[in-house]
Structure prediction request, 129 residues.
Amino acid sequence: MDHIFKKQTVIGRGLSFVAVAFLAFDSAIKFFMDKLPPEALEAGAALQWPIEKMPLVGLILSSCLALHLIPRTAIVGAILLTGYLGGAVASHVRVGNPIFSHTLSPVYVGAFIWLGLYLRDPRLNRILK
Prediction:
């Protein structure tokens, strides 16, 4: 039984790593939007977010991510990241982006966050059983 829990924890950490790496990269580029080439800015411009607001969005995302990375506050961080990702879905819906590639990509990241947390955190595992 212990080997199953270890395997589950490794898979959970892997899923969490993928989600955290993606969100950390997304957060970091929001602080350097003025230094990106114009081709890289086209995707952001399509969402119609003012470029001067991106550092604030990056700060919010970084804060939620930091809470998620601290074991004691991981569940709170996951809840806040879910809200952030919901806003991303709304932004994609508002501008009419394709559903499976753009609009649902934040849902995929959210699924990795929650499934990874469920598999690696016994507290959440006990609550949801």
